Amino acid sequence: MTHPALIRRDHLSTALRLAADGLPVLPLHRGKVPFANCPACLYTSCGGRPHMKTPGPCTCPKPCHGWAAATTDPWTLNSPQWAGAWREAAAVAYYPGGAGLTVVDLDHADAVAWARASLPATRTVRTTRGQHWIYQGTMPSANGVRDGVDIKSTMAYARWRGPGTGALAALPEAVRALAVKEPAPVQPVPYAFAVSARAAEGVCKHRTAAFLERGITMAEQRITEATSGIHATVYRTFLAVLSTHGRCGCLTEDHTARLFAAAQAKGESPRHCTDAWTNARTRLGL
Hints:
Blueprint: H1 4-20, E1 25-28, E2 48-49, E3 54-55, H2 74-77, H3 80-88, E4 91-94, E5 101-106, H4 109-118, E6 123-126, E7 131-136, E8 142-146, E9 149-152, E10 158-159, E11 169-170, H5 173-178, H6 197-200, H7 209-224, H8 230-245, H9 253-265, H10 270-284
Parallel strand pairs: 7-11
Antiparallel strand pairs: 1-4, 2-3, 4-10, 5-7, 5-9, 6-7, 8-9
């Protein structure tokens, strides 16, 4: 039987060999989880801004945590900070995105069968229950894109299970499309608006119809162009529209549906839209 210490030294040897080939690597604990090198970012997407979901410079003490700890630097891999991790390591992982790769993780036989029927052939690595299909190119990582299929590329790590077989193929659009979420359907506006007699005639009692249309268009644009503080922007925009047209009866469900649609396109949920609209009406006493 192989002694555990020899297995752990072999993990470091494997890591150094992969790093020399340009593959960023890191040790994994039992359970395929990274070591807690950096408590400050243990449960976040370290190396980037979690709310932005994009990689960025890491300001944490080195070595960092998770995928951001992966490195090709042999001095870091052999450093005293990682000596304990390699003594306890159960496996070696790598950062696909850091090497310009994407791993399609197929977790069972049905997922493998789907890939064979739907994706171009590429380098294939056997796993415990399925296969890793590796493509040249990067994309956002995503879990559960279909039954038994995860995508590991940027801001994710994959367990090293050997070099595999077959030539690398370019990342196909069929894989990129798996991570594209369909926009959520816009929920109907849960408010019915009383329409005054003058509004029913198409005339606002204090503004023209053109002014109303221009105001709704500007409100949609304000929400659409917001780059931060989306919740606050949506609320302030709803408040501005209601303060001008909330009492005169010229607003219709079509107008508010347009505002809700703009907000939901920026990631707001139907509930957030409803809450913002209700809070704005309450503040104005409507």
